[in-house]
Amino acid sequence: MSHEGRGIARVNGKTVFVFGALQGERVLIQIQRSGRKFDQATTLEVIEASPQRIEPACAAFRICGGCSLQHLDNEDQLALKQQSLLDMMAHAQLDYGELIPALRATAWGYRKKARLGVKYVSKKGRVLVGFRERNTPFIADMLRCEVLLPQIGHKIDRLAELIGTLEARAHIPQIEVAADENRVQLVFRHLQPLSAQDQKRLAEFGAAHGYYIQLQPGGPASLTNLFPEEQSLSFDPLGDGSLNIGFGALDFVQVNSAVNQKMVAQALAFLDLQPDDRVLDLFCGLGNFTLPMARRCAGVTGIEVDPPMVARAREAALANNIHNTEYHAVDLTRPESGYSWMRQSYDKILLDPPRSGAPEMAQLIGRFEASTIVYVSCQPSSLVRDAAIICAQGYRMTHLGILDMFPQTAHVESMAVFQQQPGGVR
Question: Is 66 within the bounds of a domain?
């Protein structure tokens, strides 16, 4: 099996990556893309099945690009993801210390944020709503989604029917989905002004299903509430009612609330924050880690590239009566030593970078003299690269584990913990 969850075969001496095939199986395949070094294929028929194979829960699994591992039991998915991460660490000759048990929650109906494509297909006389097909730009023909929250995932067909009744059905390319514990918010991107009748139908749909409805005719600043007039979504990073962070459908937040709560709690446990600790939170976003940490230490400095998000993070801190945080809008791919926060030392550091990782900050991490670093990763290869850089500055990785943030997909989230070694930076 590849790290992306595809079966690996050799056909006439050439490597073939096969979607939908498991290790040890004999399958009939169709080559979809042929390259000089390897081919990509999909499974047409399973001739000899693996004992690990299960029946996918979603009728659209074979064509939808949203999931890739529904034919593998969730326990085996976790084992595959964990082994792929450990293999990368071994290849880089990195000692990861103690293996942390995988953080997990429900394997279905967990996803609270998504971007759904929309397409009016005149030849079919109807609208398609869903994720893109695997390896194509087309919208998958699907009636429901099993990984989205059931409140919206089980109503994909009704959403498609609604858009089919609109005058602007050919001019709505996507729907942004966001949800909290109480509400689902739908943002309809539209390429031409909506008629009063279309707006009325959208509002009635929202009222009938308990959805918030927003319209987006242009960029993020064009977002307006259609129904109801007042809308708000929020999340609690720990799930204990101690914090409430507001967010919008276009904001970045973790898509899996249950795993996120366990992830934040685990990060806090490894950081072992003390009342006099000063913490640096790199790629802080809206404060998912910042605010829980601030409640347990002397102060937290949060760094994020997007000024509007930094402003929202400040607002979230004040809304939760937290006054020991400060924020800076900085592009961490181009850090400069002249920044005031760069000239300070910190007791602990939390990093939660994007898929590209944080090589630039990893190279500078030693200057902060932190005793403990917790790195939350959404791309194993980036983590392995950055971990080697961090360890070269006098740190040792003491713990490593995966976070099952995206069940049914090959996406691997992980957490690594580093401790400063005697003698500090080398």
Answer: no
